[in-house]
Specification:
Helix content is about 35%, strand content about 15%. It is an alpha+beta fold and about 575 residues long. Strand 19, helix 21 and strand 20 form a beta-alpha-beta unit. Helix 5 packs parallel to helix 7 and helix 16 crosses helix 21. The N terminus is likely disordered. The protein binds 6-diazenyl-5-OXO-L-norleucine. The site of 6-diazenyl-5-OXO-L-norleucine has 15 residues, from loops. 6-diazenyl-5-OXO-L-norleucine binds next to loops.
């Protein structure tokens, strides 16, 4: 581990929040062997030990990587009910070694048919933030079940009942509540308490959050999972589960009907592609902004010799932050669901556009938000969660998938009788032009609510190929708008700065999203000198964890496969 990891922790911890101190300690104290694994036949990196075990269970029964991905999707839905679940959606980027084809599965939530562009505004046209965050109206039509079943149907080898067994058992027999889940329950207790079915599962008497060490049973969820294992898509999108979701929506002011459920559509999309110094980057296209901006930022940075500036020198951080700033201004202006709006992805990922953008960046002076055309507004309060897993096998197949219900416990509504926590993904739409979401991301015209449209995302499941076309790195992370900058930095740390993967993941990360006009720096932080230099260039600094939890896998030059689960979180890598 390089010196900067250890040295700077003491200096900066004093000025950072609890989460920063906890994470800095985790990075310092976790042994490398606790968050890395080495194998050659397969490697699984997920955000939960039970989820990694579920994927392992499937491999051990002769399942392939796609069975393992489906098992992991259902298991993580149980293990991280505050982050993701059957009531949410996500994206999966796949490399099929046999055909050489890369595919992007889009199972993002869709706005219900009755949704419209003014649904989150009051009579005076002002944004009513709470409406897209809590309660029935916050939810889009869930896509996760349809998406993973489509992958299983196309590529799976084992029967669905075997693949879903670990998830069903985890929900039925219960699991020990871990500290991060306790924190989420505590943070959301007041909201969960408002909804009978949510309260029953996640809170104790008097609406007290359950505590770490208690057992969490999700019996209704186990029944829903069994129905899916038995009836496949119809077990969720038709029959009793769909009816109970529609009934819960009606009761809590939502718009999703049984017809919306039945009409949910998975989209298989061409991946977005780019290159960085000869490596090919493959990632998620719209309705995610993630892949496009990961590539756009890397394109801008390709024109500099960052390596000689030093991985986390003030100069390199300044240039990288400036490229992030430009990407986020473009995100606000152009990004949305490309089925509904004209999104100029080709231009945004072109080298020519990157060269033009580079001209706007000075080597020693921060860009001002005034240098950009889109006006920026007040920021929303944020909270987080989502989840990512990556799996790679010895044959060269890769699955990288980010899945979410958006904020902690999504809309806070469990559809009574189903155990399903409904998402609050509708908050990722722009409530009006210039409206901000939970993550302070500004939305434009292309991201206004429309019936059956998908809200703009930042999720960036990505795969990197070497010059011979071999997938050498696959990764992703949760954490709202920070997803794309955390993924981009990890790629940059590996390709440009040639850091070993565990160091690339553990290193200090930073984030600039154009608005607010600041560099957000997470644990283990930079040295005082680097920060002073950044300030002298005109940057404002905010010490705050980025919330990312990178799950990454690297194929090494000797053919072995290395898994790394971010030391900041409770993930686990396992492989043989
Ligand atoms: O799709 C998105 O970009 C967000 N809904 C993801 C939310 C998220 O990552 C929350 N985080 N930790």
């Amino acid at each position: 581990m390089k010196v900067f990891l250890g040295l700077v922790i003491f200096v900066v911890c004093a000025c950072s929040g609890n989460k920063g101190i906890r994470q800095a300690d985790l990075i310092k104290n976790k042994k490398k062997s606790e968050y890395t694994a080495l194998g050659s036949q397969y490697m699984i990196s997920t955000q939960g030990a039970a989820t990694t075990q579920a994927a392992k269970f499937v491999f051990e029964r002769g399942g392939n990587i796609f069975d393992a991905a489906v098992a992991a999707s259902f298991a993580i839905s149980v293990e991280r009910p505050h982050s993701t679940g059957l009531g949410g959606g996500g994206f999966m980027v796949i490399h099929n070694a046999k055909t050489g084809i890369n595919e992007a599965y889009d199972f993002r939530e869709m706005a219900p048919k009755a949704a419209h562009s003014k649904m989150y505004l009051d009579k005076e046209g002002k944004q009513v933030t709470e409406r897209s965050l809590t309660g029935g109206l916050a939810s889009g039509v869930p896509g996760l079940v349809a998406g993973v079943l489509e992958v299983h149907n196309k590529y799976g080898k084992l029967d669905l009942k075997t693949v879903m067994k670990p998830a069903i058992e985890l929900a039925e027999k219960g699991m020990v509540i871990y500290p991060a889940l306790e924190r989420a329950m505590t943070a959301k207790a007041e909201k969960l308490c408002r909804f009978e079915a949510s309260k029953k599962i996640f809170l104790d008497d008097g609406c007290k959050p359950k505590t770490a060490g208690d057992i969490l049973y999700q019996k209704d969820l186990a029944e829903t999972l069994k129905l899916i294992a038995h009836k496949k898509r119809a077990g969720f999108y038709e029959g009793p589960v769909a009816k109970m979701i529609a009934a819960s929506q009606k009761k809590h002011g939502g718009l999703i009907t049984t017809r919306d459920m039945r009409n949910y559509l998975v989209k298989k999309r061409p991946v977005v592609e780019g290159t960085y110094k000869g490596y090919k980057i493959v990632s998620m296209p719209p309705p995610s902004s993630g892949g496009t901006h990961v590539i756009q930022i890397l394109n801008i940075l390709e024109g500099y010799d960052l390596k000689s500036l030093g991985a986390q020198s003030a100069e390199a951080v300044h240039l990288t932050s400036s490229a992030m700033q430009i990407a986020f201004a473009d995100r606000a202006e152009y990004m949305g669901d490309s089925d509904f709006a004209n999104v100029p992805v080709e231009t945004l990922v072109s080298k020519k556009y990157a060269a033009q953008m580079r001209e706007r960046i000075s080597l020693d002076k921060a860009l001002s938000s005034k240098d950009f055309p889109v006006p920026f507004k007040e920021l929303a309060k944020e909270s987080d969660h989502t989840t990512h897993f990556t799996i790679m096998d010895g044959k060269g197949n890769v699955v990288s998938s980010t899945q979410t219900i958006n904020g902690w416990f999504g809309s806070s509504v469990v559809a009574a009788g189903t155990g399903v926590v409904m998402n609050n993904e509708m908050d990722d739409f722009a409530s009006h032009i210039g409206g901000v979401n939970l993550f302070g991301a500004i939305g434009g015209k292309n991201n206004l609510v429309e019936p059956r449209k998908r809200p703009l995302s930042s999720m960036s499941p990505s795969i990197v190929f070497n010059k011979e076309g071999v997938p050498v790195l696959a990764l992703g992370t949760p954490s709202g708008t920070r997803i794309l900058t955390c993924v981009m930095q990890t790629i940059l740390n590996v390709l440009e700065h040639e850091m070993p993967l565990w160091e690339a993941v553990a290193a200090t990360r930073y984030h600039h999203q154009w608005s607010p006009e600041e560099i957000r720096i997470g644990p283990p932080f930079f040295s005082t000198e680097v920060e002073e230099k950044l300030k002298s260039m005109g940057h404002k600094i905010n010490h705050k964890s980025l919330g990312c939890s990178i799950q990454a896998i690297q194929r090494q030059s000797d053919g072995s496969i290395l898994g790394v689960s971010d030391p900041r979180g409770e993930g686990m890598s396992y492989g043989i």
